[in-house]
Structure of MUC2L protein:
Amino acid sequence: TQQGESWWLCNCTKAICIEDNIVQVIPVICNPPPKPTCSNGLSPVPVIDEDGCCWHWECDCYCTGWGDPHYMTFDGLYYSYQGNCTYVLVEEINKKVDNFGVYIDNYHCDVRDVVSCPRTLIVRHETQEVRLRTAQPNTLQVEVTVNNQLVALPYKKFGVSIYESGINRVVEIPELKMNVTYNGLSFSIRMPYSLFGNNTQGQCGTCNNNTADDCMLPNGNIAENCQTMADNWQVVDPSKPQCSPGLVPTGAPSTTPTQPCKESSICELLLGSVFEPCHAFVRPDKYYAACVFDSCVLPNLDLECSSLQIYAATCADQGACIDWRKYTNGVCSHECPPGKEYRACGPIKEMTCKSRGQNDTSTKQVEGCFCPNGTMLYDTGVDVCVKTCGCVGVDMIPREFGEEFTVDCQDCICLEGEHGIVCKPHVCDQKKVTCDAEGFYEVIEVNPKDSCCPLFTCKCNTSLCTSKAPKCSLGFEVHSHIPSGMCCPVYQCVPKGVCVHQNAEFLPNSSVFVDKCQNCICTNDVNVSTQLNIISCEHIPCNTYCQPGYEIKPVKGECCGKCVQTKCIIHTADNSELILSPGDFKNDPHNNCTIYSCVDIHDQLIASTSEITCPAFNEDSCKPGTISLLPNGCCKTCAPVESSTPCSVRHRRDFIVHRGCRSVDRVDLTECEGTCGTFSLYSAEANSMDHSCSCCRETRTTEKQVVLKCPNGHSLSHKYIYVESCSCQDTQCSRPDERENNEENNEASTLNRIKRAISLASK
């Protein structure tokens, strides 16, 4: 050893070579260093010097994020950012660790797409990529993958350890003395200043105990605000093609609601007595601002709980554990699975049967679901609470040492020792059965007393039987019975107690159709020879009486005839009935001016009642003793007295009937009448003018048109002659060639007059 050289001895003692083999032993004296103030407001942590004897204070790099989301950088700078892409939270400026970084994947957690929430936290270290992903939005359900493969916790491989701690999932890299926690609503990143001081960049800022440069951009420049900075730390994510570094920055939503907003009363807990024990360690103002923001912008998502949760977690990290959820009226309650109970202040690593002999020096606490008092977690990978530390197998049922049980058809015993559960195949004591009778076959059934040992029994399957059911004739059915102890049935045909006629069966007391002229019924009497029920029949009596106007007509295919109407039945004015054959007409017995008629149109009988309208008649204009009835027996006429009254047109309104069709409304009809003693009437039936033996005749006529309605529903356009003017003319009533048959003409004229009267007055 050369002069002046020094080296360490045990117990923090240093040896110095003075000269000539003279060694001076000097004990190292450590003076307590002054306690610094950390810009993030957290307590500094003591760190052992490199010599291993003395220590100094350091401000750990502690970054958190929560809600929609809000960030607290390593140095304690608070800001909110609503980007919905994937961003860098932490990377090294000068790369010392291979492939190291922490990243966050945000998504829009509001239908308005104005705010975002964390969905996945990504931790990369050398060859592994750990993803902590929220299984259900806004919940504490988190699933863990390593290199895109789901893993069970605890997980430990290649320098990365992942485990559950209360409500959190923790990724720990012991070599770097760092850990990342995530619970679906919030995250925290803790890194030692000694390894990462002045060498971090990203949305968590620079870890140098100075907030002035926390909004540093990737190029080293300082942005005006951290929202601008956060946009620039976007990374390429193939699952989000809409996101690309360098696009338009994400704008922050307005924190001023469209309507006055009263923050949730839950936020006031941060400033009140519930969290007062923590105020001396961590200031609540930034968490309160975040809570108010969440309750105003997203009032329906209960995101304000995340501000209280991350503040409580930060307080617990600083040694002040707060049981706060019970003061939120159930809004921020946390439900635990069966067999677990919630504790606000539980151990970071819960004691298990495997670790109870180990010393856990950590005094920090976390909230979560823990085993009830008097029980203990069996192991970190076996989430079962046990009263005594025996064994827990694949069925997750705790067993005591020495307990025997059967699982998966193995007879097992719980033994104290390294292997714990020792098993051997389950032995069955069974009796063999034989199934020789027809129709039987062997089956294996589950034994309700021992599910591992099946029961061998004989079952009956009738499809294996060779005998078939016979086909019985009508009126008979197959009956079968199975003899005791047998499988296959015995068949026979037995009467059904029915009647049979023309390949059909009839139940007793039901009608049987034999022919149209008989009423037949199935009786309960049985024919001894056929064993079928007897059919009894009676002839059908036919009706021989029909009402007046009806006649019995034969019906094809029927046994009896049917009353069919063959004449018109007319009710007269005095409520008596008048029966007319088709084509007949008859005057009312009490009123010759009323005429009843019957016509047959397309096999449909139509009865009509007509009123004869007489020409105007003035007895004063008649010569005495000349008044008489016209041939129609209704209208009066006479020999007129000489008068200077000119022949003129007379108007009347009446229906027009032609070929069985009638006008819908009454129409304006005209006729000539005057002192000439003559008149002329239009006949709709003949569609021409009929003349009486008078000389008052038409001098000018026009042709008019009217629509007639027919009984079959059709319409008919009909033309008729309309008299415009009349004058007295010296004309003859009959043609010269008709004088020889004057008597016949008079009869025809009378008939025409009656028909005209009927047609004009038809209703």
User: Anything to note?
Assistant: The CA atoms of residues 17 and 23 lie 5 Å apart.
